[in-house]
Structures
1.
Amino acid sequence: MPASDHRPAAVLNGSEAFPHRHLTGIAGLQPHEIMFLLDEAEQWVERNRDRAKSDHRLDGITQINAFFENSTRTLLSFEIAGKRLGADVVNMHAAQSSVKKGETLIDTAMTLNAMRADVIVIRHGSSGAVQLIADKVNCPVLNAGDGWHEHPTQALLDALTIRRRRGDIAGQRIVICGDVLHSRVARSNMLALTALAAEVRVVAPSTLMPAAVDRMAVTPFTDFDAALEGADVVMMLRLQNERMNGAFIPSTREYHLRYGLTPERLQHARPDALVMHPGPMNRGVEISSEVADDTARSAITEQVEMGVAVRMACLDVLTRRARGVEGWA
Amino acid sequence: MSLRFTDARLVCPESGERNGDLVVAGDEIAATTSAEAEGETIDLGGAILAPGIVDLGAFAIDKAAFAFGGIVRVGLMPDQSPVLDDPGIVQRAAMMGKPDLWIHPIAAATQALAGRDLSEMATMQQAGARAVSTGRTWIEDSGVMRKVLGYARDCGLTVIAHAEDGRLTRGAVATEGETATRLGLSAAPALAEPLAIARDIALTEETGARLHFRQVTTAAGFELVRQAKRRGVAVTCGVTPAHLFLSDIAMSDFRTFAHLSPPLRSEEDRQAALAALADGTIDVLSSGHDPRGPEAKRLPFADSAPGAAGADTLLALGLGLVRDEHLTLDRLFALLARNPAEVLGLDTGLLRPGQPADLIVIDPDRPWRIDADRMAAQAGNTPFDGLPVQGRVLKRFKGGVEH
């Protein structure tokens, strides 16, 4: 049975469906646990389209969004998700925090812990920083992106988008193209999509391809056109200019020539292939506006919508034990 | 004052292993037979009596850890604060171990370890320096490295080098591979090591210098050293237990105690290290003692400092290699005592009459568990936390005096 056909939520009760205290990454999650989170998110998609979007299950819960790295859309998405569930949401920006004064990450974690947060959402520029905090605090910790490591809610929202648009994840040929080396989005997506039995191809110039990536059950390509043959989904990554130091690619113009997704290039994929991008996009670099704005094929705005639903589901599930939800003791 | 050790299991890198007695007169070994001696007799009841360990390339003076680990002499790396690049500082460092420990300063090969200007090697040698080193880093400029090797040869000093191409390893905290990819850590190819080794061996061959690579950790690196030795190049190399026992998988869960320099390698490279140990390519087993406090280790992996405490665990892990039949006991003490002494130009490390009575008594079977919270070292950052080991130092003598 393909992993995506698995519906354990119907047969597993309470915490058995998701036994983890934190969500630090996709690594360590079983396929049925990923599916459980997607199923949970599904209900919020429709709910968020209603006029009355509010729910009160997180009333009295304090959610701290501790963002040590700049972010607009992810922070906003987590903030909206928490508020729609009734949580008291507090945002902590690194620029305003004592981190700038030399406080260590663990000291910051202990401070947040002492303030009795009920759930902490962390974004940090160093791989592993979220795990470090999760080991030190008493409440659930949600990874909103750590270094080059993982961005699990992005992978979940991408998987939800694919499942809704394609009907299934198993068996889909999914091409992930761009700066795979520096991308936490790529890592989490490789883990999630292969766990759900998709065929995943990663494409990048060899200067931006991580070593031994083939051991993560994906197939690496340097030729974008070859990788696109028969693709059901094309997932573009942002070219992270701030991490390039000018040495990974000769120029953005040349990058676009080899790895830019244009209407012509997209013809190598299936006619109904879905185009995705985690944003923000560098139009004319990794993706042309014609492709990005083609509503028949582009799911980019839908990904943003799924993001809120996925984050609502994760906040709900991770706080169930503390809230004494039946079956989650 | 004389000492007579009886019923000892004598282990000597030169004369091998045998049961017998050893006599110390003053601060020297007087005899390795059951000769008559005045003074105290110590019945070892079959325990091992071996040369005191000469730890080549420690980064901190950590007397408690050295005492626990049976280390009597320490080759101190120049990466101190201030850097060992001045005769006065070298002289002071040499005094710091007294009375219970020999500190043999390894001077900076270039001023401030900056890799640009030659240091005053001869003057520092007069002040007590026993070798010169590039420290934690690689000298990028091949012209400077050539001058370092040539000038050190003139002074009769061995150059102790760090072997990683710094341009390839810049910003990296791990070795490229599946683990680094999964963890999203900045990584450098293992090739950085053989690249550096190949250059430095070529320069050593040309200058006729003596070169010791403090740590070699890759299959390709060992092969280059192996071939150079066959050609008669005066090159030696060392390793620490971490690279013999652990592969990069130990970094999983972002365990900063496994953040080392050079970083942990693949399982294939670890197996190559064991093979190089067995075939004699590796000359020195050292602790790489580099204790780091929580302020340097309780950080995200990439932000943490590389290094681990190693003095406490060096002997027990070395005995583990003997138990696993990678080494014989006398060869272990060649790696721990005789060979590092030779790199430093010291006439010690053997159970031979006339040598300094730097000795350790070991119960090789006593079990204990490495516990990061209960180590003698200044900081308990060991990648071996929780590992059960066997072998404890019972007594330690420097110059015939127990400390």
Note: The interface with chain B takes residues 27, 104-106, 124, 126-129, 131-132, 146-150, 184, 187, 210-213, 215-216 of chain A (CB under 8 Å).
2.
Amino acid sequence: MLNKKPVKILALPALVWLFALFVVPMLLIAVLSFLKRGTYGQVVYEFTMNNYIRILDPLYGQIFWDTLVVAVLTTVLSILFGYPLAYYISRLDRSVQQIWLLLVMIPFWINFLVRSYAWVIILRSQGVVNTILESLGLITEPLPLLYNSGSVLLGMVYTLVPFMVLPIYVSLEQMDRRKLEAAYDLGATPWKAFWHVTLPMTKSGVVTGSILVFVSSIGMFVVPDVMGGAKSALIGNVIQNQFLSARDWPFGSALSIVLMLLSMLLILLYFRATKASETKEGAA
Amino acid sequence: MKTWRRHTLTGYSWLMLVFLYLPIAILMIYSFNDSRINAVWSGFTWKWYLSLFDNRQVMQALGNSLSIGIISSVLATVLGTAASLAVKHYSARWRTVVNGLVYLPIVIPEIMMGLALLVLFSQIHMELGKATLIMAHVTFSMPYVMVIISARLADMGKELEEAAQDLGATPWETLRYVTLPLIMPGVVAGFLMSFTLSLDDFIISFFVAGPNSTTLPLYIYGLVKRGVSPEVNALSTLLIASTVLLVVVAELFRRKDSKTITY
């Protein structure tokens, strides 16, 4: 066999780069979360658990809870909205499929700050919707469509739904269609065939999509910032604030560590739950 | 499938496309609206675009975005391509370890990477600015380059490389004259993708940009926070147009890539 050593070292620069600019910084956050904040916002090198104790305050509990609720709702709505679209695309002719996929991907590539802002133009009090309704004489006062939890949820689903469509499409594409035919041959109605064959077989796509959407929405601060106003602060906004306004880096780090652990835990539970139901179905 | 069911699904899917594109279309249309405050259409105008070109801050942000985008995507492409070539020859176990390190930045929430880098730069007393932005952008786009190029390499098979080596080529010659030309479309697609990611990034840049290194998305954020002005629409429209253009070109390269691969 040929000596592959010279080629093997080509990975070294990239690995060193990722170690220095990804692994080390993440570890620094972990260390920082156990340190103290000085009077002027500097970091004091003294061990403390106070940052984590402070998170137990019901105020932060509430914000974490709100964040989780929004993230879960965003994920569920993305499945409900995204699945039928992915299903439709998977049934199209190859060449048309490619075009639809590109069409779904393009908005996903557009900056989500810009996409959230697009909704501001539509929903604000002098926005497109209110202007149309007023000129039709349906309302006299502009409706408060923006800066509430509903608009945040709308913005989240809008920006994240492509994350759901693509993985579900991939799993639909890879599905063994013969099993579906078998189900039909055995007299299953289309709904039954979908529920008992297609859906379980595309679970991996739903799981992947859910994780992508969930992870993105749990740390999101742009959408709540632009579409939610001050009222609906999520944990991402609080972390951002601790770092840039309050200048309490240790506390901000502790918050983000808890956020990361929480999201990892939930993803693990979700994985377990979907795996468990899969084996149950297999046994039945 | 019964016809009505198929029609419902088709209708629904088109509605989803409308849902995805309508806000973007409205944003773009209103960048040509003459009125400053109202959503009422008061005539077509180019003036918001013209005022952008007169705006020194915008031009500076554009310059920053472009230079950071080019430098960081060249770096990300070179590092990522080299790494993908090497990782292909790793044993299964090492490949898993390396892939874990590479894919982690993709799945971690962006806000975490942003503030982790902010902490790093402050700890090593590095002043926030273009350099820190470039370093951050390379970090988040290199994994994507590796994903694209690894996929290309996996499809490629070993035959051509082995043939070259049988004919007496050294590993470097094989790399230079066989492997690299074959993966070139993937390399270009990877470059375009990291350029798009860099041009578009807001969250991570938000944390690692210094006061004098505003990029276009950061500038847009400032405008959005200060209140709605049609200039934001114009600037957003330009950003959307360039993103779409880059994505389509990258996609064409990727397609060309997957077409040439089937011999």
Note: The CA atoms of residues 81 and 146 of chain B lie 6 Å apart.
